[in-house]
């Protein structure tokens, strides 16, 4: 079967029109006609088309090597080919499971995920990778939802991934995306993935990078990475996207805070959000201020002068302007070659950070290190041993 055949069954027109959200979702029909429990990835209020369409697609295209008449067990182990074919067939359920696989910390899952990614790599790179940051409450989720709707209604396929360091540090999320982007999540051409939980920011970053690639292989042509603006994570997201948007709000000296933390320097586009109602004059003043500031800052992308625009995620004002500016950005960096060179550099930088992470992991996992580490810590803390001598001694020749 050709690739075209795979895709054909998953084209938009084969998807039944969505039913009103209030309607009770019918149980998913198994291939043999028996009702099947709702899969766990289906939102509580998903429309009928959401799930039945998927099951249908797998059956008719014979994807993932399933026998046509046999019902698929709910959590059947997928092979490398199951993942690869399912993702390329744009099956969101398989995409979700591929991301879960890539997020796993188990070595066996990691190996499988790398095999899947290697096979999918030729199908990646065709999206616009856009990072969005802003302080909590700036309106990121509302804005992404508004932008997402505008994009899907214009024929784009949008994936939204979140990096939320609070979910790894405190075990709770301050993004609250599950609530905010529910409506966009019901769009057949939108895919929303909350931040992976657990692990370091570096671990979360690796998982998000791999999720970007998987989403691209699944045919999403816009991948938005949302992160909350609380420090180091903006730099991390900047290093995995093509274009970086900073969402700001007027007043409370927030714009100055952003400047001090060096976040504005990372921005290819500044969006002053909540430009609605009686907040508009303050936003216009903030815009003028930001334009002045931007003038003195180094530009993160060669050949591109970052604009400052007004928007309201609530009324939709400026949302299409933001997308138009995004289009101009990509046109520019494609012409200058900046897009390609940035991505090449990012991939190499990523490899190096993976090397560091892996070496560190192996070092602390060594038996001799485990046995001597706390004694060495004490010696260093007591001032009996210089830190460098202790470090070199522990590292040894291993
Ligand atoms: N007036 C106004 N309120 C907004 C706008 N965008 C978001 N909000 C509100 O600001 C609050 C925070 O929005 P949210 O999207 O959760 O911000 P996030 O923390 O950056 O993701 C919510 O109460 C939104 O309804 C806007 O453009 N105008
Ligand atoms: Mg949010």
List how many beta strands DSSP finds: 9
Q: Return Rg in Å.
A: 23 Å
Order of helices and strands: HEEHHHHEHEHHHEHEHEHEHEHHHH
Question: How would you sum up the global shape?
Answer: globular
In spatial order, strands of the major sheet run: 5-4-6-3-7-8-9
Q: Enumerate how many helices there are, as a single number.
A: 17
**Helix coverage percent of residues?**
40-55%
Helix- and strand-based class? alpha/beta
What integer is the average pLDDT? 81
Please sum up the structure shown.
With 398 residues, the chain is of the alpha/beta class.
Can you characterise this structure?
The protein is α/β, with parallel strands linked by helices. 50% of the residues lie in helices and 11% in strands. It has 17 helices and nine strands. The chain has helices at 3-8, 48-61, 80-88, 92-103, 107-120, 140-153, 165-169, 177-180, 182-185, 201-217, 232-238, 254-260, 280-296, 319-336, 338-365, 367-381, 387-395, and strands at 28-29, 35-36, 128-134, 158-163, 190-193, 222-228, 243-249, 269-273, 308-310. Strands 5-4-6-3-7-8-9 form a seven-stranded parallel β-sheet, with helices on both faces. A two-stranded antiparallel ribbon has the order 1-2. Helix 12 links the parallel strand 7 and strand 8 (269-273). Helix 4 (92-103) packs across helix 5 and helix 16 (367-381) packs antiparallel against helix 17 (387-395). The protein starts with a helix and ends with a helix. The model is unreliable at 1-67 (pLDDT under 50). It binds guanosine-5'-diphosphate and magnesium ion. Guanosine-5'-diphosphate (GDP) binds next to helix 6. Guanosine-5'-diphosphate binds at residues 134, 136-142, 180, 273-274, 276, 312-314. This is Methylmalonyl Co-A mutase-associated GTPase MeaB. Belongs to the SIMIBI class G3E GTPase family. ArgK/MeaB subfamily. It comes from Actomonas aquatica.
């Amino acid at each position: 079967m050709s690739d075209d055949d795979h895709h054909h069954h998953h084209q938009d027109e084969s998807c039944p029109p969505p039913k009103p959200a209030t309607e009770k979702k019918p149980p998913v029909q198994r291939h043999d006609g028996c009702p099947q429990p709702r899969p766990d990835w289906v939102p509580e209020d998903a429309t009928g088309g959401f799930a039945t369409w998927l099951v249908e697609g797998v059956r008719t295209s014979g994807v993932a090597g399933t026998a046509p008449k046999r019902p698929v067990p709910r959590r059947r182990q997928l092979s490398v080919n199951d993942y690869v074919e399912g993702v390329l067939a744009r099956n969101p359920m398989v995409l979700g499971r591929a991301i879960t696989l890539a997020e796993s910390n188990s070595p066996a899952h990691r190996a499988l995920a790398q095999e899947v990614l290697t096979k999918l790599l030729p199908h990646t790179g065709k999206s616009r990778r856009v990072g969005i940051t802003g302080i909590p409450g700036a309106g990121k989720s509302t804005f992404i939802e508004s932008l997402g709707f505008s994009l899907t209604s214009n024929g784009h396929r949008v994936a939204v991934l979140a990096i939320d360091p609070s979910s790894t540090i405190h075990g709770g999320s301050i993004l609250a995306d599950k609530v905010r982007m529910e409506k966009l999540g019901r769009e057949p051409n939108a895919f929303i993935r909350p931040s992976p939980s657990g692990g370091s920011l570096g671990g979360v970053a690796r998982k998000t990078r791999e999720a970007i690639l998987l989403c691209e292989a699944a045919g999403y042509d816009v991948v938005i990475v949302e992160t909350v603006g609380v420090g180091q994570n903006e730099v991390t997201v900047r290093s995995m996207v093509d274009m970086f948007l900073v969402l700001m709000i007027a007043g409370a000296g927030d714009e100055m805070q952003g400047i001090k933390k060096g976040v504005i320097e990372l921005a290819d586009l500044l969006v002053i959000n909540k430009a609605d109602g009686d907040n508009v004059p303050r936003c216009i003043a903030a815009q003028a201020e930001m334009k002045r500031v931007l003038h003195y800052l180094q530009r993160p992308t060669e050949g591109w002068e970052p604009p400052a625009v007004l928007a309201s995620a609530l009324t939709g004002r400026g949302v299409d302007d933001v997308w138009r500016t995004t289009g101009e950005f990509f046109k520019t960096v494609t012409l200058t070659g900046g897009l390609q060179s940035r991505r090449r550099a990012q991939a190499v930088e990523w490899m190096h950070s993976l090397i560091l992470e892996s070496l560190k992991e192996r070092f602390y996992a060594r038996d001799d290190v485990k046995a001597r580490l706390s004694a060495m810590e004490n010696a260093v803390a007591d001032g009996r041993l210089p830190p460098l001598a202790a470090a070199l001694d522990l590292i040894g020749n291993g």
